[in-house]
Amino acid sequence: TRFTVAHTEERFPTWSSDGNRVAFTSGRGGRFDVFVQTSNGSRGEERLTHDLENKYPTSWSPDGRTILFYTGGSTQGSGNDLWILPLFGDRKPLQFLQTPFNELEGRFSPDGRWIAYQSTESGRMEVYAAAVSDPGRKWRVSAGGGTHPRWARAGREILYLAPDGKLMAAGVQLREATIEIGSPKPMFQTRLAHPSWTLSSDGEKFLLNTMLEETADAPIMLFLNWSAALSRLGSPAP
After folding, report:
1. Is 76 helix (H, G, I), strand (E, B) or coil?
2. pLDDT per residue as tens digits for the range 102-113
């Protein structure tokens, strides 16, 4: 069933935790802004942002009161930064991380107190975690590069993609103000057509945009002087 009807590019569909709403970004007016719409179509879409910066929603808070998005690619040439958009009060976006580096793909933890994200702070993409209340203090999750983090098992693991396509899992223990992160371990190899994947809410199933296995094409054979070959075999040439 088609969900949006605008004649423009629309991306990043992001479910609310209760499944009743979907946030997405739409490229209307020459930039991408955040919209929200009920999942059953009972209410029309609502535009939530209105400035010049491109915005891409990636996660709802578990209580449904805020949306996490990242910015970047605007006409101002800025990098990627993380912002939190409240869906109450004046709905003014709140800065979470704005640095000289690129931060994107943020995800709220199941308890809503932490955010996992990827950043180029080390010189390459790595996965980090930081408390919503203290974004300046962060913990590195990945080892050797990582992108597209997801929380699993009620916040007891952070999963992410390694540069070689392996899906990695790092055990975590959330404290009041700190987080303990275990050594990442490979789960399985992926062959993603696009680095897009998700995990079911019960943590038991994966949905991955996977390329088909490559198969060898049948060779093309060119026969030269084939009429002479038929003569040698005693068969008349046509």
Report:
1. coil
2. 999 999 999 999
